[in-house]
Structure formats: C-alpha cells, structure tokens
Amino acid sequence: MSCLRSVFLLLAALLAAAAAFAQDYTAGAIKVSKVWTREVPGGAKVAAGFMTVTNTGKVPDTLIGGSIPFAAKFEVHEMKMDAGIMRMRRLEPGLVIKPGETVVLKPGSFHLMFIDLTQAPKRGTPVKGTVIFEKAGRIDVEYKVEPVGARDLGGGHGHH
User: Fold this and answer.
1) Please, are residues 73 and 117 in contact by the beta-carbon 8 Å criterion?
2) What is the pTM of this model?
3) What is the tens place of the pLDDT at every residue in 25-69?
4) Residue 110 has what pLDDT?
5) Domain containing 33 — which CATH number?
6) Torsion sign over Cα 155, 36, 50, 74
C-alpha cells in the first residue's frame, strides 16, 4: 500500500505540475479549467468569476463556494431569463455538476460572485483563489483577469 501510495503521490505531483502549466485544476473527479474574472471599475463592490467545471466521476458533486483574497464573501449565482427579465439568484447549497457533465460558468449564466471587494481585480495580474466542492473538496485556482466587458477568456473584444 505504501509503495502504491508513493507512486500515486509522485503521479499526483507530476499531474499537478502539468495542470498548473495548462491552467487546469483537478481534485477527485472534478476538473476546473478556463478560470477568469473581469476588471471592475475602482470602488466597485462586486466582481464575478467564471470557469469551466467537468465532473469525470460517477456521482454528482456540488460547487458550494470558495474564497478570493480581496472579497469578504464568495457566492455561487445563476442568471437566467424569467419572463423577459434577467434575474440573478444565489444557488443554495451550490451548483450541482452531474456525472459526465461539463458546466461553463460564464457571463449571463452561472457565475461566482465576489462581494464586498477590498480591491478590484487588475488586468494582467492573475489572482489566486480557491473553489470548494462538496465531494472533491478545495481546489486552488488562479483567475486570469480579462478587460471589462469581456464575454469569455481571452476574448477582450467586448463592446463598450
């Protein structure tokens, strides 16, 4: 067992090194990729986080929260059209990712809310944070900061 464990740990370390390079993060059956946020005007009290989450396992898992250094609160939200009105609500306990499913957190859909900001994300300065899953646990991630109005990672062509 201990020999297997050390091989596993070595593999895990190698995978982690590769993942950091590719900006993919895994824990258990959960894979997180394309992690980003947008610049917000100075003085803004909220910012949003986006990412792609894949559940490679056989059971559902739930994105229940996380943290980012410059926000007092971190919530999982959903935006959707309801009778022609865009409504945003907090998901309790969180966002369920079904087995084999990939969920994209993006503007106008599911997203993370960073609330009560002490400082604003700045373009070109990646921000480290964590996301927490009910089963997979805590995953350390790094958010790439895109310009205001970006619709996706590396988009940067949003209209103002």
Assistant:
1) no
2) 0.81
3) 999 999 999 999 999 988 899 999 999 999 999 999 999 999 999
4) 96
5) 2.60.40.1890
6) negative
Report pLDDT digits (tens) over 144-159.
999 988 888 875 544 4
Query: Does the residue 130 lie in any domain?
Result: yes
DSSP annotation of 147: P
The closest alpha carbon to 24, from 48, 56, 66, 61, belongs to 56
- CB atoms inside a 10 Å sphere around CB 158: 14
pLDDT of residue 68: 96
Note whether residue 38 is domain-resident.
yes
Q: Is residue 17 part of a domain?
A: no
153 within some domain: no
Burial class (CB in 10 A: 0-12, 13-18, 19+), 139: buried
- Domain coverage including residue 107: 24-146
